[in-house]
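Encode chain A's predicted structure.
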Amino acid sequence: MILIKVAPPCPPQNETMRHALCVRRQQRRARMFPEYRDQISALKTQDAHFARLFHRHNALDQEIRNMEAGIVPAAGFEIERLKKEKLQIKDQLYEILRNAA
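Encoded structure for chain A:
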């Protein structure tokens, strides 16, 4: 197996670039359950368990992206394990959203 390391992205040089990166991150997150966008916003502030799950899901997503890009070294089985954990959390989030509807 050949591992190729990709240089990490350059840090934003100014406030406009930082804002653009933040907006892109929020747009990626909004793709998850777009029909529940308002409920997600409410539950993140009202339900600590939901907020923890949501945060963990996003953290796993970023960790997986970094591993797949070669920014963080990882074996294939580790990426697979994290993807399974992320999917289980997504299932839990969906169940909470359905029950809250």
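Residues 24 and 88 are 24 Å apart (CA to CA).
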